[in-house]
Each structure stands twice: as C-alpha cells, then as structure tokens.
Amino acid sequence: MTTLIANHVPAALPAVRRPRLRWNHDALRRFALSWPLPLAVLLLWSLAARFEWLPPQILPPPSMVAATFIDLMASGELPDNLWISLWRVLAGFAAGAAGGLALGVLMGLSPTAKDYLYPSFRAIAQVPSIGWLPLLMMLVGIGEALKIILIAKAAFVPVALNTYKGLENVSTRFIEVARVYRFTRWQLLTKVVWPAAFPQVWNGIRYGLTHAWLALVAVELLASSEGLGFMIVYGRQLYQLDVVLAAVVVVGAVGFALDKVLALIENHLLRWRRDGF
Amino acid sequence: MTASNNADLRRLLRGVTLPALLLAWWWAAFRFGWTEAVLVVPIEKVWDTAVRMSSTGVLWQSLGASLARDLAGFALGSLAGFALGIALGLSRLLENLVGPTLHTIKQISLFAWIPLISVWFGLGDTAKVIFLSLAAFFPVALNTFEGIRSVPRELIEVGRVFALSPGQMLRRVVLPAALPSIFNGVHLALIYAWLATLGAEYLLTSGIGIGNLLTDGREHLWMDQVLLGIVMVGLVGFGLNLAATRIETRLLRWRGNSTGQY
C-alpha cells in the first residue's frame, strides 16, 4: 500500500508543473507515429501499380486517383454530386430527427403513449432501413422522395429510441429534489428532466446522423442517377476505379466532417457539465 | 399479484392496438373494395405466399444462405477485430501506429466498400463474406480497444501485487474487466453484419438469400414476396438480438447487479 502511494505522489508533481511541454511532446510523438502505416500502404500500392502486379483497371496507381480527383473537382462533377448528397442527407436527417424527438418525448413523458406506441416502434425498428428499400421503391418510386424517406427513417429510429430512454432514465432522485423545491411541471421538465436526459438524446442524434449517412450511400448505390453513391456505381460499371476511389475518399471525408461538427456542437452545448467537476 | 397481472394485460392490449388497427384496415380495404391499386395485395396473399415458399423450400434455402454468410462474416470480422482491439489496447506504440489510420478508415460509409470489393473479389460468396467481416470488424475492434483502455488502474495494480504473468493478467484481469464493452462491440457487430448481409445481397446480385428475395419481388412487382421478405428480415434481426442479449446476460452474471441496485 505504501509503495502505491509513494509511486503516485512524485509522478503527479512534475506533470502539474509543466503540462504544456509534456502535452506538446506527446502530441508530436503521436502525430509522427500515425504516419508510417498509411505511408507504407501508399508505397506498397504505388509499387503494386508501378510493376503492374495487378492490372490498372483493378488497382489504379495513387497518382492516377489523385489526378482524377483534381479533374473531377475542377470539372465541377464531384462538388455537384457532393452537394446533392449533402442536401439529401441533411433534409432526410432533419425530418427524421424532428420526428424521432417528437416520438421520443411523447413516449418518455407519457406512459400511456409509451404502452400504445413502443411495441409498434420496436417492430419497425427491427428491420434495418435498407430492408424497407424495396418496399419503398414500389410505393414511391425511385425519385427524391425515396431517398428522403429512407434517410429520415434511418435517423428517426436512434433519435426516438435514445430520447425515450434518456427521459426514462432520469434519476428519480433529481425529480425528488425538484419536488422539494416545489418546481412547477414546466420547470421540472426544462430545468431538471431535459438537462439530465440531454446527453443521451444527443447521443441518439449523433447515431442518427451516422445512420443517415450510411443510408444515403446505400440508397444512392441502389437507386439514383446523381450523388456520391451514384458516382461510385458509375465508375464501377465503367471499370474506372480511379473515379470510385476518389468518390470513396470523399464519402469518408464527409462522414468524418459530419461527426466532427456534431462533436464540436456537443462540446459547446455540454460546457455546463464540466464546470461542476 | 392480480393488480400487476392486470397492468401487464393492459399494457399488452395497448401494445397490440396499433398493429391490430392497421391489419384490420388493410383487410377491410380489400374486403370492401376501397382500393383498386395493383401494387397493394390483400393480407391473406402474404400468408399464402409464405406457405407456398416454405413448402417449396425456397424460403428456407434463402434464409439459410443469408444466415450462413451473415454468421461466417460476423465470426471472421469479430475475431479479427477482437485480436486487433487487444493488441491496440495493450500496446501504446501499436495504438499510435495503427489507431489514427483505423479511425480514418472507419469513417468510410460501409456500403461504399461494396463496389471496390466487387471489383477485387467478384460477386460471389467470397466477396460477400469479406464485406460482412468488414462490417463486423470495426465495432468489435473499437469497443475491445476502448474496453481494455478503460480497465481501472486499481485492478491492474492488484494483478501486479499478485505477480501475475502477462498472460494471466490478460485472461484474469484485463479481459473480464473489459468484457461489457467487448460485448457491446459484438452486439453492434451482429446488428451491422445483418444490415450488411442485406446490402451485399442487393448489390452483389448473385446466388440466393433474403436480400435477393426482396429485389426479385420488387422487380416483378410481387408485393406479397417483398412484405414476406421484410417480415423475415425483422424476425432474423429480432432473433439475433435476443440471442446476443441472452448470452450477454449469462456471461456477465458473475458481475452481479450492483449497478442496478441504487
């Protein structure tokens, strides 16, 4: 026991004295170490393409992918398709998240509504969005409505589920304290229940956006004549793998950016949580 | 006792109200000729189709094919993810080397891989299983890694006091403590693998499976087959979920329910 304590104390002191320097050194090291693997893959890829271990239709050299990427950017083809995809995902996500929040709040606050709606909701949620795709294609065709509905459904389920669970899981102790302070129902909801449930609600929103993006790519691969997913299918059909890879990189970058934006908003919205601790 | 039974019964009745209304409306629409649409089929027809396809065996063959590739991909992907997760969790150096690349690749939307995989591995079962294992790989790898990283330092210190060898430390301290998070990953992997099975069957259109049943139904405008397919997809998803939850509770029973007690 004494050794544990003795080990801990001296280690803690220098860390407090010069945290900035240590952090910088650490970050630098991490940054440097993150490069060897992708560079090795890139090197192997270049070599494989250079010596034609695989035909270029199957594995185009990285330089070609980069050149295609620049071409597609310059010609406006990539940005145009990107905007179409982004618009779809944002419209579908907004609709789905709004519906999910409404249903989640309803089920979370009213046990009667929950009894009526939750089993049906679970049944619908059981089938992944992509399972509904053939049915929706038959019902609404393959127009814009199909994409928006499918993306909205993908976002709807996690938002509704997490909103409901978040509200349900609010600790009864918080509510008891609020009762002691004689909060009105409105005060209870806005000052206690909502802040307590918010982190999980937000989690649902983040999942919702991830699922929306996943659904967008799926629906564009299967039924679309524009958008990033369509570029991928189109490039694949013409055996232009450079186009496919360029579009895949953009799909990854957008997914990353969407997630980062939500993480930043979360940090901003949940600032108050950190002050207490 | 009776009071709680009544409450359960009431909850059950309320739960089936909405689906029952929907089914009744569907049935009535045909019974009383409210609709002339060709696409919408009477409810009995879905049942007839189910009986017909199950007696010819098509339904079971499709289901079997889908499940087999789902589980094969899931097993491969989770094992690989588990191994990488442990390696990254135990070694800071590996984490720094591989972690950033892993987190970057993770961002690529799952289905965007399919066209690439189809070029590299064809349209057959190899390509499908590779895609499915990719779907299962990321959640298991990331959650195993997170689980190992969040093992409380105290537990490791106790292990040190007992002078456990690295192997013992891993088996007796680290993995059990990380188990809930690992299960989380496995559970997610199961869900994603099933989602990916459907996607793979839609896009890599060769062979049989529930996904092919759905796409065939759509192409021929057989609404009954599409609806049957959706029900099957839901049932399989439900079954996999249930199995995962059961196994999880069983394997985590030793933890007791201390967290649920306050």
By secondary-structure content and strand pairing, the structural class of chain A works out as: mainly alpha
End-to-end span of chain B in angstroms? 24 Å
| Number of domains as seen in the coordinates of chain B | 2
Low-confidence spans of chain A: pLDDT under 50, at least 5 residues? Answer: 1-19
Helix content of chain A: over 70%
Number of helices of chain B: 10
The total strand number of chain A stands at 0
Strand content range of chain A:
under 5%
- What is the end-to-end distance of chain A? 28 Å
Characterise the protein shown here.
The complex is a heterodimer of chains A (277) and B (262). With 277 residues, chain A is an all-alpha fold. Chain A has 2 domains: 2-50; 76-275, MetI-like (MetI-like fold). Helices cover 85% and strands 0% of the residues of chain A. Chain A has helices spanning 2-17, 19-33, 36-50, 62-74, 77-109, 111-126, 129-140, 144-168, 172-180, 185-222, 228-237, 241-269, 271-275. Chain B has 2 domains: 1-36; 39-256, MetI-like fold, CATH 1.10.3720.10. Chain B is built from 10 helices and no strands. Chain B has helices at residues 2-31, 43-56, 58-90, 92-106, 113-121, 125-149, 153-161, 166-203, 210-219, 223-251. The chains are: A mainly alpha (277), B mainly alpha (262).
Summarize the structure in short.
The complex is a heterodimer of chains A (277) and B (262). By secondary structure, chain A is mainly α.
Features:
heterodimer; A: 277 residues; mainly alpha; MetI-like fold; 2 domains; 13 helices; 0% strand; globular; B: 262 residues; 81% helix; disordered C terminus
Topology record:
The complex is a heterodimer of chains A (277) and B (262).
Chain A: H1 2-17, H2 19-33, H3 36-50, H4 62-74, H5 77-109, H6 111-126, H7 129-140, H8 144-168, H9 172-180, H10 185-222, H11 228-237, H12 241-269, H13 271-275
Chain B: H1 2-31, H2 43-56, H3 58-90, H4 92-106, H5 113-121, H6 125-149, H7 153-161, H8 166-203, H9 210-219, H10 223-251
